[in-house]
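Methods: example folding runs. The two proteins below were folded one after another, and each record is reproduced exactly as written to the output file, sequence line first and structure-token line second.
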Amino acid sequence: MKQVRSLQKAGLLGLLSVSLCAVAVADDWTQWRGPGRTGVSREVGMLKTWPEGGPKLLWSAKDLGEGHSAPSVAKGRIFGMGVRGEKETVWALDEKTGKEVWSTPIAGTITLEGRQGGYGSRATPTVDGTYVYSLGVGGELVCLESATGKLVWKKNLVSDFGGAVPRWGYSESPLVDGENVIATPGGSTATMVALNKKTGAVAWKSADPQGSTVAYSSAIAADVSGQRQYIQFLTGGVVGLRATDGKQAWHFAAPASRGGINCSTPIFDKGYVFAAAAYGHGGGLAQLTTDAGLMAVKEVYFTKQMQNHHGGMVLVGDYLYGFDNSTLTCLEFKTGKVMWAERSVGKGSVMAADGLLYCRSERGPVALVEANPKEYVEKARFEQPERSNEPSWAYPVISDGKLYLRDQGVLLCYAVK
């Protein structure tokens, strides 16, 4: 009898273990570029290839508004932004059906100096428990209730902090870290700010010593030599600010393009930071060290073979993958050595999950590629349906076994697990 009970207990423990593993590999995508803003999903068990025509399309949502805002996914809801008529709007959809749950207008429309890509929303909403934070193209920073869309508080990066709308609009996705939300107005006295996430009250304002202003990147949070920092790519280079007071700890100028059109989110790993820009520029790696309590920046290398525009890069193991203009390229992260370069789908964006790269062309094709530093191995590809007349700049998103593709007013949901 004891043996039977022991076997039953072992069986229950086994089932529980399997259940826990199943939960562990399904992952929400609560912010820009997912967990840690790395662009790498923690999910496993993904499809290793797709049938002809692509993975199964579960649903498509329409009339979401103009914009390149990639979605975020949390607790059964999908959050995004778009310009509908004369209003820039944050919306929430049901994850299972794609049906709209709520929508909240946050600002009117504005005309940008740079027309390319349209005037629609750029930012990905950030979900933090019961609240969702997002930034309008004209600088309207809002905190909404994630369940209802009700406005909790709002600030404007121009009128409240002296910022100026960039040529192609504010594109930053707000960063939530601890009790604060971090944003980049780009003003002379408030290049970056930290606000209390519950009230919007100012925790600190930081002016950039080099006179840089806001570019098109989104900040990341990192622990650098035991110090919590916010790393952002400004017009004049990559900077690290102390999380406690916003004081600049270091500055790395090499990755910044001459015109300050810097879009890529910095990659940080074990004391090294990489960033890149296009327009004939390239990317650079720096090592961050501490000497007598002061941060030191040592450039490791600079390469012309990662001129990444706005499609981003991902670090998988010891190798960096991203589009060098229109060529998918693999670099050895610590040396800059080019492992391979392939046309793939042409200029686009990339995300990673379970040893695979999800490569999305701005012109329609989507490819599944091995994250393999030895050679380019394409496992499958398909043409995105329901294409708009604009380039598809919204990054692909992997969440809970699904692939999401945003193309202006349309969001497509595919089963990829």
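Second run, written to the same file directly after the first:
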Amino acid sequence: MKNRVETFVEKYQLYKEDTIQQIQLEHRFNLVETFKIRKGMHVLEIGCGQGDTTVVLADMVGKEGKVVAIDIASPNYGMPFTLGQAIERIKQSELGARIDFHLETELLNFPITQQFDVVVLSHCSWYFESEQKLADYFKRLRHIAKRVCFAEWDLRFSDLSQRGHFCAVTILALYSQFVKNVGNIQHVFGESQIVNLMAEAGFTLQNKEIIDASFLQDGLWEMDYATSIQNEFNQVPSMIQALVSNYYDVINENIDKKSLNSFVLIFES
């Protein structure tokens, strides 16, 4: 009997030879399950990236539903496939008709004339360069939907094998404070910060869950990237250099390395 990822791949002819993407799909299915997305829903996804969560949302809403997916990034951003390449592949599939993609799109300037059933932000908040910008987004959501589903990495690692990912995240967050870059960690937000910002925007937390994401490759990717920029910390204050050096020692430990888990928050206004 086929599992849900195998069924998805066969049905939509997406990611057939892409084992990495299939592993990512399993995580996105786990997230979207907690979002309680139903057939016929109209969903706004913020920070769609290459469409990892988007395709699962589109599968869940069915032919009668719609997903509007926006991202501030350009079509040329991303690797090994750019956002433009990844999205074009999705558009050519059966799911393409259910999704409207809008790249280089800022939510605060995006014209929205309809109410959505739900807004989804999945592993995108760390791209925001400031708390104020994220808070402005949340305030705009108050006029777009009554329900918001939010997912992000959980820094409260539950196993020592996840500590390397935690250290890599910390290194990259510090890196963004001292070096201008376009990496995917600009500002780290935790669960309590998101709950507070959403409360200020008029939303109340209805449910929260921890989703196992330890099997994903993201932790290794972040550790590799953190290692690649180590020499760039030579110009930062000595206290920061000392702190970062200790984090690199943890990353380089010869132990099993896994990704952090994800937390999911469901809000209603």
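Comment on the second run: The mean pLDDT is 96.
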